[in-house]
Amino acid sequence: MKKLSQLLLLLTVSGFAYGQSLDPKLNQALLQTKQGSIVELPGFLKQNFPSIEYHKIVQPGPQYLISDDPEYIRVPEAIAFQEPVQPGAVRLYVYNVNGVQEPSKIDRKITAVIKNTGTSDMHLRMLKYSSQKPTTNYFKSGKEGLADYFASKPEEKIRTIKPGQAIAIDEKLEKNVVKYDELVHGFYEFVIDQPGQVSVIQTDLKTSGPAALKRIKDVLPPKGHSGAGRGVFGVSNYRVLTDTILDTKNGAAELILADGKKDPWVQGYESSRGEVASLAGNYGVMYEVELKWKSTDSKGLALVTWNSRADDNKWCGGMATTMVMDKGKYEGGIVQLPSDRLNTKKDPEAILIQIYPPAPNGEVQTIKFTYSPPGASCLPTPLIFVPVDMK
After folding, report:
1. What is the pTM of this model?
2. Least trusted range by pLDDT, from 151-165, 187-201, 222-236, 317-331
3. What are phi and psi of 172, to 5 degrees?
4. Which residue has the higher pLDDT, 12 or 271?
5. Which keywords does UniProt give here (predicted)?
6. pLDDT of residue 227
7. Which of 148, 268, 297, 360 is most solvent-facing, going by the fewest CB within 10 Å?
8. Which residues contact 28 (CB under 8 A, 6 or more apart)?
C-alpha cells in the first residue's frame, strides 16, 4: 500500500497524472504564453513521460559534410577538414573555433573552399545559405544559423570553377576576422556538376583560403573528445512517422530525437584516417516529423521543449534552437526558441512552441514540423506534447 501511495504521489506532481488534468495554474500559464516564449512549469518537466514511438525513414538528400573535429583549431595555420564530394547536391556545416593560444592569442581566418578535381568546368549554385559573424556567443550562432538556413532561398548566380582551381564557398568567411575563442558558423547547401574536394582552413588574415590550400599539405588529426565529428555522412534527411495516434485523454507524452540511443548517431566516413566516423548529435540532419493526434476529451495540445541536460556539466547550462512549425493557435513558420531571450536555462523553464486546438468533431489531425538538432546545445531536447483545456 505504501509503494502504491508513493507511485501515486510521483505521478501527481503538480497535479498532473497519466490521464488526468494539468494543474489549472500551469494550464493557464501555457495559454497566456506567446509562441516561442519561456513559460515556467514548476514540478512538471522532470516527470517520466510516456515515450512516443516512431519510425525513421531515410529520405533522399544531399551529401552531408560537417567540420567539427577538432572543434578548436589550436595551430595558426591548418586544414581542419578535407573530404571529396561527388557531382550533385552537397550540405556543408562549418563549426570551428579559433583556439590558437601559443605563442599568443592571435586573430585568424577560418574559411571553406572547394576545389574542382574533375576534368571539365565545375558550376556551383547555392541552394541554402546561412553565415553568421564570428562570435563567442555560440547559442546565438546555433539558433540564428538554423533560422537563416530555413529562411534562405536558392540563388540564381552560378559560379564557374576551372579544373584544378579552388574558390571560397562563402566570401563572407574570407573577410571575417576571427578572434581567439570565436566560433565560425556556416551552414550551406549547394549543387555542383563535377567531382570536387571541400576543405575548411584556418590561416592568417592576408592569405585567401584558396592560396592557403596550395601551401598546406596535411590535415589535422581529430581530437575525438571535442566536437560532434567530421567527415561525409550517409544521412542528411529523415522522415519521422509516429506509430500510434496520440490521444489527449491519455495525458502528456514526449518525442525524443537525437539522443544517441533511441535515435542513434548517423555514420559516415572520414578520409584522412580512412575510418568510419560517427556524427555525435546528428547536428545538421533534418527531421521532417508527422504526428497524428486526436482529442476525445475536447482538449487541445501544447508542444513545449526544455533544456533537459542543464545539470550535466557547465557546457549544458543553456539551450536554444529554431524549428519550422505548421499552423496551430499561432501561424506556422520559422520559430526561434526561445524568441524572447537568447536561451533557456533549466527546469522549471520550458519554451512554448505551438498550441493545437482540438477538432470540433474529435477527428484525427496531423501535426507537421521540421526539427534539426541545435548546434551549441546539449542533446536531447525533448519535445513534450501536453493536453491543455482551452476553454
Report:
1. 0.93
2. 222-236
3. -65, -40
4. 271
5. Signal
6. 84
7. 360
8. none
How is residue 173 written as a grid cell? 568567411
Mean pLDDT, residues 203-223: 95
181's CB contacts (< 8 A; 6+ apart) are: 97, 98, 99, 136
Q: What is the largest CA-CA distance in the chain?
A: 79
Q: What pLDDT is attached to residue 51?
A: 97
Residue 21: its pLDDT value, please?
Answer: 64
> How is residue 284 written as a grid cell?
545538421
348: which DSSP letter? T
Burial of 123 (0-12, 13-18, 19+ CB in 10 A): middle
User: Are 212 and 89 in contact, with CB atoms under 8 Å apart?
Assistant: no
Amino acid at 22: L
Model pLDDT, residue 183: 98
C-alpha to C-alpha distance for 196 and 350, rounded to whole angstroms: 44
Own/partner contacts of 149-155, CB < 8 Å, gap of 24 or more, are 149/187, 149/189, 150/322, 150/324, 150/334, 150/370, 151/334, 152/128, 154/125, 154/126, 154/127, 154/128, 155/125, 155/126, 155/127, 155/129
> How confident is the model over 162-173, as a mean pLDDT?
98
CA atoms within 13 Å, Cβ hemisphere of 335: 27
Q: Which residues are 79's β-sheet partners? A: 201, 219
pLDDT at 153 over 50: yes
